[in-house]
Amino acid sequence: MITFKEILERVTFDAVWDNLIKYYPDMAQIKEKYVTVYESILLQNSATNVVEMIVHIDSIDSDDDKDKKDIEYRVHGKNNSPEWEGYWDLSASKWGEWLGFYVDQQVLEQFSTEQIVALCLVEMTWFGFSEERIKDRIDHLEDD
């Protein structure tokens, strides 16, 4: 299976960015934050995927506006855990872990490498644009 790191190494930021703002046009004003994240991730080593996590991306029809039908995407993980047979939320995962995650074969068939990286970057930064910020926000969620 191919890892997220292997996919990341095949793309350029500009191509990823073009896809990211196509999916999320409201994020156009924070390009520099994504550049920083992208460059930081490229320098990291991937963690061993001990839990054999596989990244899945599903499209979901959104009917928020009756005149316009949007498609939203959900990035999540699945593994062979005996504890949980559903999907895992990956947004709080460390970036090194992300790099070691496998990418589902159906995702590879349905999306370009640039689209995969764009959608995963949004999920990776759901709680912040640095691992310190993400950890801080997760810690505060646990306190609530």
What does this structure look like?
This protein is an alpha+beta fold and 144 residues long. It has one domain (4-143). The chain is 46% helix and 17% strand. The chain has seven helices and three strands; from the N terminus they run H-H-H-E-E-H-E-H-H-H. The chain has helices at 4-8, 13-23, 31-43, 95-100, 105-110, 113-124, 131-143; strands at residues 54-65, 68-78, 102-103. The protein has a three-stranded mixed β-sheet. The termini are far apart. The model has no long low-confidence stretch (mean pLDDT 91).
Instruction: State the total count of DSSP E strands.
Output: 3
- Please report the number of helical segments: 7
Q: Choose one word for the global shape.
A: globular
Query: Which residues form runs of ≥5 with pLDDT under 50?
Result: none
Question: Which strand order does the major sheet show?
Answer: 2-1-3
Label this structure with key terms.
7 helices; DUF6557; three-stranded mixed sheet; globular; 17% strand; 144 residues; alpha+beta
Give a topology summary.
Elements: H1 4-8, H2 13-23, H3 31-43, E1 54-65, E2 68-78, H4 95-100, E3 102-103, H5 105-110, H6 113-124, H7 131-143
Parallel strand pairs: 1-3
Antiparallel strand pairs: 1-2
Helix pairs in contact: 2-6
Structure in a nutshell:
With about 140 residues, the chain is of the alpha+beta class. The protein is about 45% helix and about 15% strand. It has one domain (about 5-144).
